[in-house]
Amino acid sequence: MNNSRSCTSSHFRRLPKSLSIRRKVLGAIWYLASIQRQHHCWNIQCKNERNRTPACTSQFLNCSAKDNPARHAWLTTTNLLTNCDAQNDENFQFGMFAEAFTNHVAEASFIDKYFYCLWWGLRNLSSYGQNLMTSTYEGEILFSIGICIMGLVLFAHLIGNMQTYMQSASARLEEWRIRRRDTEEWMRHRQLPPELQERVRRFVQYKWLATRGVDEESILKSLPMDIRRQIQRHLCLALVRRVPFFAQMDDQLLDAICERLVSSLNTKDTFIVREGDPVNEMLFIIRGQLESSTTNGGRSGFSTQLHSGLALSEVEAFALRAVDLKFVAKQFKRLHSKKLQHAFRYYSHQWRTWGACYIQSAWRRYTRRKLQMELARQESLFYSQVMEGEVESYYRDEGGDERPLVDHSNNGSHLGATMLASAANTRKGVGHQKLPRPDDSTLEMPKFFKPEEPDFYAEHEDS
């Protein structure tokens, strides 16, 4: 079916070219035959005037003798031009070639001759020579028969191509109708909800409009490896290079990736991927719009998961399956270079989120340590000032009354109590801040684990 359709399309493309060549050839033959027909008339009349004075010779008919005095004398007495006039067919019948002289084609410029002969060939080829008024000259009749046969062959060729094309198109349409009818019967048998049935119908309709029933994968598989690689490179290379991670790979590795891309079609309001599903393939969008959304800021860990992807319109894309990517990685060890590893971490959503959370946690630990150091410094300064008797500080007793921390009348006896009260106030302030210890478990990120290094080899699968 695919071969018949491709052959028909190639015939349709060759038909205008074949028609153009044939009309040019017919127009040129007609013009040259017209000149030859007139020269034949001149030879006949010249033979009839050889016994006259001045006599006609064959040299007088050549352009090289136009300055010959004898030729000028002969032109004044000859009847050759009158008897060989295309508008007067009593002495000589020009037939289908008279038009070249009655319309003054022979006297026109080269451009005018070219287009007129082109038009003459197209007109008579499309009408099978029905407008030709021929004489009894054998060559003229054979030429007219050739024009008629050529026109019939072209018309039959066109009709045959049209019939083949219509049969191929109708066969594909009938095949699609049968598949659609089977789908409808299956959905009714399974008692699918009306909304789900409508989505299935919309997908089947979109797939038919996008592919016209052509199986692209089977066509590519039937081609040689070199041609298939060139086609895949033409279709997919620009899309693959738009991904920063793939843009740093060499051409050989990109060709291997392009060879394993498959076509993917999705209709409107279709979830291409749901949040939490494992990553099975990567999509390179050709046309269409997608909406990416997540819940709780995407804080669901750093396993191989994606945000939800909803198709806002019909989406056509190429898909790279995870299995194919691992196969390419096993064949090409260059995937494990430091440059590609860095690119993977830099453009990975999981690695970026983990890095941001790690920096935030480190910053919190730093600020808390800085606050504790500042409290310790303030407490040390306070102790030194108390010991020197420069500060009159107070603390609250159990009854809520403020009392001086230091009694200057009896410094020595109350020094221990003063230090104890100062330490109590400091601890109370630190407790009010609820500052965790540097090794406290609250500083850790229990939900955000460091992503694993990309392992394309998948050795555990081979073992």
Automatic annotation (TrEMBL):
UniProt-listed InterPro entries: cNMP-bd_dom, cNMP-bd_dom_sf, Ion_trans_dom, RmlC-like_jellyroll
Keyword terms of this UniProt record: Ion channel, Ion transport, Ligand-gated ion channel, Membrane, Transmembrane, Transmembrane helix, Transport
Biased composition (Basic and acidic residues): 447-463
Domain of life: Eukaryota
A Pfam family hit: Ion_trans
PROSITE patterns reported for this sequence: CNMP_BINDING_3
One GO cellular component term noted in the UniProt record for this chain: endomembrane system
UniProt record similarity statement: Belongs to the cyclic nucleotide-gated cation channel (TC 1.A.1.5) family.
Listed name of the protein: Cyclic nucleotide-binding domain-containing protein
Organism: Populus deltoides (Eastern poplar)
